[in-house]
Design brief:
The complex is a heterodimer.
Chain A lengths: L9 H8 L1 H12 L27 E7 L13 H6 L27 E4 L4 E4 L13 E6 L6 H10 L9 H9 L9 E4 L25 E2 L23 H21 L4 H23 L7 H6 L5 H18 L4 E6 L14 H25 L6 E7 L2 E7 L3 E5 L3 E7 L7 E2 L1 E2 L6 E3 L4 H11 L9 E3 L2 E3 L15
Parallel strand pairs in A: 1-7, 1-8, 4-12, 5-6, 5-7
Antiparallel strand pairs in A: 2-3, 4-11, 8-11, 9-10, 13-14, 15-16
Helix pairs in contact in A: 1-2, 2-7, 6-7, 9-10
Chain B lengths: L6 H15 L12 H19 L19 H6 L16 H7 L15 H12 L38 H6 L3 H12 L10 H13 L5 H9 L5 H11 L1 H14 L18 H12 L4 H14 L20 H6 L1 H21 L18 H10 L4 E7 L3 H19 L2 H4 L2 H15 L5 E2 L1 E7 L4 E4 L5 E4 L6 E8 L4 E9 L22 E7 L7 E2 L2 E6 L30 E12 L5 E8 L9 E7 L11 H7 L8 H22 L4 E7 L2 E3 L2 E3 L8 E3 L7 E4 L23 H13 L4 H16 L20 H13 L4 H10 L1 H4 L6 H6 L12 E2 L2 H12 L15 E3 L7 E3 L26 H5 L18 H9 L1 H17 L3 H13 L5 H14 L1 H8 L3 H4 E2 L1
Antiparallel strand pairs in B: 1-14, 2-13, 3-6, 4-5, 5-13, 6-12, 7-11, 7-13, 8-9, 8-12, 10-11, 15-16, 17-18, 19-22, 20-21
The chains are: A alpha/beta, B alpha+beta.
């Protein structure tokens, strides 16, 4: 049985607490405003922020599943060329390596400097490299594990163990949605499959279930939102039958609520039914990419097999945040031995496949967000669960390495063209300006107007935070 | 997660400000009136926190005016100019004057004015006594350890049952009611009237079985003239097997049980369900609570007489398992895995957050890091995986007996080999051997070498291999036999002077490797040969690690060898699984695969057959064979040993093969088998305190133990053999199950209460520490805990007491005046309305549609389609499941719960994340949930079945609608409802109307 929820009707709360608090109970049950409802009484300059003015109202996170190699993308390490072939790595297999460390391996890709900022980028990102001046790099991200499952949990939830809410769920809980017509937190996994940990990466943990990521299979699903409409094989639940039926259902439920007064849960169910109907009307439009111009579709790479899937999901992410979804997570790569960023066997052949699939879509997304003015209040994050070893695995692959990896951010509140932190000369460990997921999460929450130390929920005796007991806002990358 | 509104609102506010507040400050004094406490918590404290503490907090170096409003003492003490609250007199209280902008004190807060309603709240609060439940210290303990003087840790004594006046006594049916009534009257509250019988039967059916009553059961109960009808109903429900299924779900939630690993490789645990069945059965038989605890932690040691209870060890394996980390990062894995088990065990059994002491002493509760790591040490020797066992004790004993005989054969333990029983076995064998039919040589018609050796038939009928020695060889022989029934074949490999070192192999060292020995029979009129299976192979001599069994294991990479006993003949016997009936026109083909390479091929061979059955024809080692050639009294001890070993080994194997196969449960014990093979530690891992919880900062070594805060019990276990891991688990089980462990009894009594009222007397059922909630009725909780402990640990006894009580029978109706005093209904002035949880919803839909399948137990039902994923984790498609397939109507407890790929319908209805210990089911409402309930294939499919069901029994639409109402809502429709539902049914089909009934709040909520 569900726990008892003390019952105060909306009217009653309105009467007792005044308007500001009155709608809170209902809105919170519905997950519309969540904590953000306080913004209704907060000064307008808070811009939806819970604790201070927000610079960001919506977030798109691009997650490179598998551990994108830093020294073959953004972290130029000339020292690797000098030491190429030397056995200077750890003698014993470190925890989480899948094999003993091999010889130092230089990057097989050519690096060049780009833009005013002079960022080094390898040849795997020909488009993105032209836009480095818009990005702020964290060059010394680090993690606590070399294992995919644990690493993915850490980057998503701030804990290496399962059962904790992910960042999207926290943000949904704290700020709710900007629209009643779409879910607050949407996850767009790779068409080839779910990442490590499957859906547990998108879990609401101990937060109410409604804050979990709504997972949408953009390529295959006929429905914008799961169960948005009945399967056509049940005609009695479609079309007019559906709308007339819901009208009667609402009538029944209103009568029931009147006979059982002062229970906000009953009223919330009635309200949620109205919202569901609204969602039925507007969600399909949000997911209809055919409404985009040919130029836009091409820009995102929808005309090319290599970029089609990731491009489609980047474009969809833009449409969703444009329409009020608060947080969209776009995954590149499924779990598995190939076709993700977990390039154990051969960096030279495996990495470009992945890089090619995202380079144009991400670049288009950056351009598009800017052109539409969405960058004014949107944050774009590119990250992964850990880095890769400077030592070869077998002859041409790289193993897991939590020591150091790269993340970049762009958009509202971000200082463009900067880099924070530095890895050591091999790119094996961090050298300075080390940042953990806690710091990244704290920074993202900060931009959303949330003090990460204050967003807590008590679970099993502990006031839990996204940032555990850690986290510092990374000031050097903030505008 | 607390889902409390308006307190929830406070919790959120307070939670946001918690770091400034000092969390201990959230707790009330048990003695305070809960209604007033609730008023303070919801109306006063949030305002103090939000508007006052920034300047008047104890954390500040110089609180403004010397006034600290973040603790009771601070508030009582007042500021530099004296007290700020005059209890009972708001107008005279400077605090009130300040916020009301009346009197001479400075108006507060300085820049804003609080709303009139807030000011009015403060007026009321001070007028009613300024109850302030906040305790000291407000901040985490600095240096010192938090005190063990805490409600949950105090020794459990049975409190006096309050005596009441006439009205109260009349109202009270049970001791429970007296505790409740006393608090109600203290708060000037009256209990609600008793529910009608229809409401009662629905409520109690859900609480005890998770299923609704049928319309017939409702009718019978409503009309039952028996004054004990309700009591009998309770007994009937408690006796139903549905009870165990319901309660198993509560328990499995609590210990994050699932059917898969979780993490990166989220694969199925095909044997996890046996634990689920164990839990169901345990609740159904009302297993005494201490026994339930002990079995789950140490059934392997404590239940020697009932080996089938090893399924209880599934408790230890209930949680997630990171197969990838276990393989590549074992140190971190084991540490975190033990942590999870400690958290689960202490949360489930004693409602304690021991894991908070992993990195440092618990900030709020008296739990040291040593306590925590002592608990880790309890689990420092277990392996997680499948545990194999016999369900029957007799079988287990036989298996163990024959295994010891096998060991005796290997180690030549003469005491056992020559036991009277075994002597007579060997003697009997010898008798049957002497009666054995001879080995009849087979006539080889055709022989072919695939490797290109030159095969020649010798005068004695044997085949000699000569010519160029092939690297590998397959010899195929077509033979006939005079025998019409063959039980076994014998292969002689013979020494021959033409072979290296006289053979019998052609390898330079005389060895040979027989990879596979295969036989097939061609019968006339049959196009394909019939491949023959062997039951057993024996040989007179086996090279170490190259035993004869490898020649019939179907694996060409393994083989039989005879090194170093070269230069002499050897033989092997292959016994058919079924005797081979051979007509004269049938042809037997024997294939000898010699695929090892390097010229390990047979030199000279001969085949023969016997019609004697079974064990009599086994191949014997030379020494044993020599014994048979001489009279018994002339045999040497060595000969006797060899003979007994050879005979008993085969006999023991035969006996073991006859036993029913062992079963498996996924769990943990001293030994378990998982993807990495057999997991068994030679001795438990050494566990040390870890500085800040970090693996690379080890400190002092600890011994197995538990919480020092339970002062009645020894916190460090004194074990005679500390290296015995199981003894550690036994010790913890005993510690938890001890009658003097106050946490254990309070914990489970509170959970039982929660299952009936939707909320525990303590509303943080997994945390009875200072971060948790305080019990609303501490004396009642203690009385229930003592009752449970003293009445044999019977949960059903407690259910019976609670269900019979007047407080439980109350109506759930809202009363404005009562809500004004106790808006959260902590004092239970009425029954709580509860929404069906995911499992109850699904089971109810099946029950009303007529599709509920009450088959109990066994392998879980997968409510999805599964196909291989890119890695080990499969891809699941819940929407593709066929709801009319067999098993689709089983109760939800039997569903396969895939940890990281949840069922969307169940998840929408707040089924918990199976990686999370879930002592409370959450409650949420969202448009996505609404859509799932309206459009999920399960609901739509069942709407159709419900429609068919009522159509089958009723002719007119109106009657069908009435029947559907009776099934779902247990009542008749009103005339208006009837006409509207008939209209929908007539226009859009009856299923459309049924879908609405499955979605309406009256169906989803229980009064």
């Amino acid at each position: 049985m569900t726990p008892y929820i003390p019952i105060l009707s909306r009217r009653e709360i309105l009467g007792r607490w005044g308007g500001g608090f009155g709608s809170l109970a209902l809105a919170q049950l519905l997950g519309l405003e969540a904590l953000g409802d306080e913004s209704k009484t907060a000064p307008p300059e808070f811009n939806g922020g819970l604790h201070h003015p927000a610079k960001v109202r919506r977030v798109i996170q691009l997650f490179m599943n598998g551990g994108a190699s830093p020294m073959d993308t953004f972290d130029y390490k000339p020292e690797l060329a000098r030491l190429h072939g030397q056995m200077i790595g750890p003698k014993e297999k470190p925890e989480g390596f899948t094999a003993p460390a091999g010889a130092v391996m230089k990057s097989p890709f050519e690096f060049k400097q780009y833009g005013e900022s002079g960022r080094w980028v390898s040849s795997v990102f020909p488009e993105l490299s032209k836009r480095v001046d818009e990005l702020a790099f964290l060059m010394a991200m680090t993690t606590k594990t070399n294992v995919h499952g644990l690493g993915s949990y850490l980057m998503n939830t701030g804990f290496i163990l399962p059962g904790f809410p992910c960042m999207g769920a926290w943000i949904s809980y704290a700020l709710g949605s900007l629209t009643e017509n779409l879910p607050a937190f949407v996850v767009l996994p790779d068409a080839r499959g779910l990442p490590y940990n499957q859906r547990a990466n998108f879990s609401a943990g101990f937060l109410p279930a409604k804050h979990q990521g709504t997972v949408i299979q953009a390529a295959t699903s006929s429905q914008a939102v799961p169960d948005l409409f009945a399967d056509p094989k049940y005609p009695f639940a479609s079309g007019v039958a559906d709308s007339e039926g819901i009208a009667l259902l609402q009538h029944m439920n209103r009568q029931h609520a009147a006979d059982h007064p002062a229970d906000s849960r009953l009223e919330a169910r009635i309200a949620s039914c109205e919202l569901a109907a609204k969602m039925q009307l507007s969600a399909p439009e949000a997911f209809d990419l055919s409404r985009e111009s040919e130029i836009t579709r091409k820009g995102y790479g929808l005309d090319n097999k290599v970029t089609e899937d990731f491009g489609r999901r980047c474009l969809l992410a833009r449409r969703l945040i444009e329409r009020g979804t608060r947080f969209v997570q776009v995954w590149s790569g499924a779990q598995g031995a190939v076709l993700n960023w977990d390039n154990h066997a051969n960096i030279q052949t495996e990495l470009p496949i992945m890089a090619n699939s995202v380079d144009r879509p991400i670049s288009a997304l950056l351009d598009d967000l800017k052109a539409r003015g969405l960058m004014e209040d949107t944050l774009l994050i590119w990250t992964t669960e850990f880095g890769r070893t400077p030592f070869a695995q077998a002859s041409m692959g790289r193993d897991h390495n939590g020591g150091t990896f790269v993340t970049w951010l762009a958009g509202a509140g971000i200082k463009p063209g900067v880099a924070h932190g530095r890895s050591d000369d091999l790119g094996y460990q961090t050298a300075e300006g080390k940042t953990y997921c806690y710091d990244l999460h704290a920074t993202i929450l900060h931009l959303l107007g949330i003090d990460h130390t204050k967003l807590t929920v008590r679970n099993a005796g502990i006031d839990r935070r996204l940032t555990d007991v850690h986290g510092h806002v990374i000031q050097p990358i903030l505008a | 997660m607390r889902n409390l509104i308006p307190r929830g609102q406070f919790v959120r506010l307070a939670a946001i400000l918690a770091p400034f507040l000092g969390l201990g400050g959230m707790l009330a004094n048990a003695s305070d009136d809960p209604a007033l406490v609730a008023f303070f918590e919801t109306k006063i404290r949030p305002v103090l926190v939000e508007h006052c503490q920034k300047c008047h907090g104890s954390e500040l170096p110089t609180p403004k005016g010397g006034l600290q409003l973040d603790s009771r003492n601070g508030l009582r003490k007042g500021g530099d100019s004296g007290p700020v609250v005059v209890v009972g007199k708001p107008e005279e209280s400077p605090l009130y004057q300040a916020i009301a902008h009346s009197g001479e004190v400075s108006a507060m807060p300085p820049k804003t004015k609080l709303t009139p309603s807030v000011v009015a709240d403060f007026h009321r609060w001070i007028a009613q006594g300024a109850v302030d439940p906040r305790t000291e210290p407000a901040s985490p303990a600095k240096g010192g350890t938090p005190s063990t003087d805490w409600w949950s840790l105090r020794p459990l004594k049975r409190p006096e049952v309050p005596s009441l006046g006439e009205v109260g006594t009349q109202w009270s049916r049970t001791a429970i009611d007296r505790f409740i009534y006393l608090k109600l009257t203290d708060a000037k509250l009256q209990p609600a009237p008793e529910s009608d019988r229809r409401t009662l039967i629905r409520r109690v059916s859900y609480d005890l079985t998770g299923l609704p009553p049928s319309p017939q059961e409702v009718n019978a109960f409503v009309r039952d003239p028996d004054p004990n009808a309700y009591e009998l109903l309770i007994d009937r429900l408690l006796a139903s097997s549905r009870y165990g299924e319901r309660w198993a779900r509560h328990w499995l939630d609590l210990i994050h049980f699932a059917d898969t690993h979780g993490f990166e490789h989220d694969v199925l645990r095909p044997n996890a369900w046996r634990y689920r069945d164990y839990v169901i059965e345990s609740f159904n038989v009302d297993k005494p609570w201490p026994r339930f605890i002990q079995e789950q932690l140490a059934a392997d040691v404590l239940c020697k007489n009932e080996p089938r209870l090893k399924s209880a060890l599934g408790f230890l394996g209930a949680g997630p398992y990171d197969q990838s980390a276990a393989a590549t990062a074992p140190m971190a894995f084991e540490y975190l895995d033990r942590d999870d088990l400690v958290t689960q065990t202490m949360g489930a059994f004693v409602s304690t957050t021991a894991n908070c002491a992993r990195c440092h002493a618990h900030k709020f509760d008296p739990i040291s890091q040593e306590d925590y790591f002592s608990l880790q040490a309890v689990f420092a020797g277990i392996g997680k995986g499948d545990i194999s066992y016999d369900e029957d004790q007799g079988v287990e004993q036989q298996r163990s007996h024959w295994k010891s005989v096998l060991a005796a054969c290997d180690q030549e333990q003469t005491d056992l080999l020559f036991s009277p029983e075994n002597r007579s076995l060997v003697a009997a064998w010898e008798q049957s051997r002497s009666a054995m039919n001879a080995w009849i040589p087979l006539d080889v018609d055709v022989f072919v070498s695939s490797g290109g050796a030159d095969l020649k038939r010798e005068p004695d009928g044997s085949i000699l291999s000569g010519g160029t020695r092939p690297d590998k060889e397959t010899t195929t022989l077509t033979v006939t036999s005079r025998l019409s029934e063959i039980h076994g074949l014998r292969l002689d490999v013979l020494a021959d002077p033409s072979l290296p070192l006289s053979g019998p192999g052609r390898m330079d060292n005389g060895n040979l490797h027989l990879s596979e020995f295969e036989a097939m029979v061609f019968r006339p009129g049959q196009p394909k040969p019939e491949k023959l299976k062997f039951r057993r192979a024996t040989a007179d001599w086996n090279q170490v690690d190259w035993g004869i069994a490898r020649a019939i294991d179907g694996n060409p990479a393994t083989a039989w060898g005879i090194y170093p006993k070269v230069g002499e003949s050897h033989h092997a016997v292959f016994e058919f699984e079924q005797p081979l009936k051979l007509s004269s026109d049938a042809r037997l083909v024997v294939v000898l695969k010699q695929l090892h390479g390097g010229g390990h091929i047979l030199g000279r061979l001969r085949l023969s057959a016997t019609s004697s059955p079974g064990e009599t024809s086994i191949a014997l080692p030379a020494l044993a064979d020599s014994a048979l050639q001489i009279p018994i009294d002339q045999r040497s001890a060595e000969q006797n040993k060899a003979l007994a070993s050879a005979v008993l080994k085969v006999h023991a194997e035969v006996e073991i093969a006859k036993l029913p196969a062992q079963v498996k449960v996924y769990g943990a014990a001293s030994m378990a088998e998982n993807d990495r093979g057999l997991i068994a530690f030679a001795s438990p891992r050494i566990v040390t305190i870890l500085n800040r919880g970090e693996l690379d900062k080890p400190g002092e070594q600890v011994v197995a133990g538990s919480l020092s805060a339970v002062t009645a019990l020894k916190a460090r276990f004194e074990l005679s053999d500390p290296s015995n891991e199981a003894a550690r688990r036994v010790a913890l089980a005993d510690w938890i199950a001890d009658p003097n462990n106050p946490l254990t009894w309070r914990s489970i009594a509170n959970r039982v209460w929660q299952s009936h009222f939707g909320r525990g007397l303590c509303d943080t059922p997994n945390d009875f520490g200072r971060m948790g909630g305080l019990p609303s009725h501490p004396e009642l909780l203690d009385w229930l805990a003592a009752e449970l402990r003293d009445q044999g640990g019977s949960l059903k006894h407690l259910h019976r007491l609670i269900c019979r009580s007047s407080v439980y029978r109350q109506a759930s109706i809202h009363r404005e005046e009562a809500a004004a005093i106790d808006p959260e209904n902590r004092l239970l002035w009425r029954m709580n309305r509860q929404r069906l949880d995911a499992d109850a919803f699904r089971d109810t839909v099946l029950a009303v549609s007529g599709r509920l399948d009450l088959t109990m137990g066994g392998v879980g039902i997968a409510l999805f389609q599964s196909r291989p994923g890119p890695q080990l984790t499969p891809t699941l498609d819940y929407s593709a499941f066929d709801w009319d397939s067999p098993g689709a109507g089983r109760r939800s407890i039997y569903r396969v719960v895939w940890r990281s790929i949840p069922d969307p319908l169940m998840e929408a209805l707040d089924f918990p994340d199976a990686s999370l210990l879930a002592p409370i089911r959450g409650f949420s409402v969202s448009p996505l949930q609404t859509l799932a309930l309206l459009n999920n294939n399960f609901v739509l499919n069942q709407s159709g079945h419900l429609a068919s069901r009522v159509k089958a029994s009723q002719a007119t639409t109106a009657d069908q609608i009435r029947e559907a109402f009776r099934l779902t809502l247990l009542r008749d429709p009103t005339p208006e409802e009837s006409s509207r539902f008939v209209a929908i049914a007539d226009k859009h089909s009856l299923a459309a109307a049924c879908r609405l009934l499955l979605n309406c709040n009256e169906f989803l909520f229980v009064e």
